[in-house]
Amino acid sequence: MVNGNFEVNMVFEKRYYYLIKIQYLGYRFHGWQKQPDVKTIHLMIDRTLKFILKDIKFKTLGAGRTDAMVSANEAALELFIYDSPIHNFEEFLALFNHNLPQDIRALSINEVNKDFNVIQDSKIKEYHYVFSEGQKNHPFCAPILTTILDSLNVELMKKGAKLFQGTHNFKTYCYKASATGEFIRSIESCELIDNTIYTANFFPKKTYVLKVRGKGFMRNQIRLMFGALIKLGKGEITLKYIQNTLKEDSIEVMDYIAPASGLILHSISFE
User: What is the reported pTM?
Assistant: First the structure.
């Protein structure tokens, strides 16, 4: 790490609030949340902030958690700084990025008021799941693209993806769902399309992306939804089965969670 200075104004016993957007490649991390003896995104961010802020007291809070190996094109955290506001955002971002690991990058910082809450305030998230089917891929694809070796009926999967759109009972698609959880959720849009968003010269010629947009996703929900679509593409379940799992009286449990490394938090916005 390289140390540096940025200008701050000292104000006694006052808290300042900032919204920071970040992006990261999650392949080598054990998710967002801090855990004993492993590297996580939150741990590396706080380590870097502690270094550049020196003796200034601070606290960070993420907008949500991502699992191990899941990446983010745009994620968010709230930074609370005590007594010493950030005076120059451009200099702060430059210093922050200079000291962050190469697989984490800060995109922007904006001041917010004390009533803003990065967890509780309404937010729209768009997730992408990137995959290919029917062949073994270059190993460099592994961090952001899931390889399904079996041939899949992708056109049928596209029809299946549309079934998740709207307001449904998503209990089938919640990992270890409790008896008292709130499972009626709304998905604004859900579509499976040819991938032109993420490209590399070592990618296979044909790749796909599942795009899901909405609020309040549950634990492993996107991966369980895509797991169902994989089973649909293999001919193991039908469109009717997916429809039935979304009914209010469904007691089905999805038994296949798609691999984490194909999942990307593409964007997050606050209303």
Answer: 0.90
Question: pLDDT tens digits for 71-122?
Answer: 999 999 999 999 889 999 999 999 999 999 999 999 999 999 999 999 888 6
Ordered by start, the domain boundaries in the chain are: 15-112, 123-270
CA distance 137 to 262: 13
Task: Decide: helix, strand or coil at residue 235.
Answer: coil
∠ CA 29-58-66 to the nearest 5 degrees? 25
Helix (H, G, I), strand (E, B) or coil at 18: strand
Alpha helices, DSSP H, located in 37-184: 41-53, 89-99, 154-163
CATH 3.30.70.660 fits 123-270, yes or no: yes
119-146: buried (b, 16+ CB within 10 Å) or exposed (e) per residue?
A: eeeebebbbbbbbbbeeebeeebeebbb
Residue 260: both structure tokens together: 């984490």
DSSP-derived 3-state class of residue 187: strand
Protein fold of 15-112: Alpha-Beta Plaits (3.30.70)
Per-residue confidence at 181, pLDDT binned at 50, 70, 90?
Answer: confident
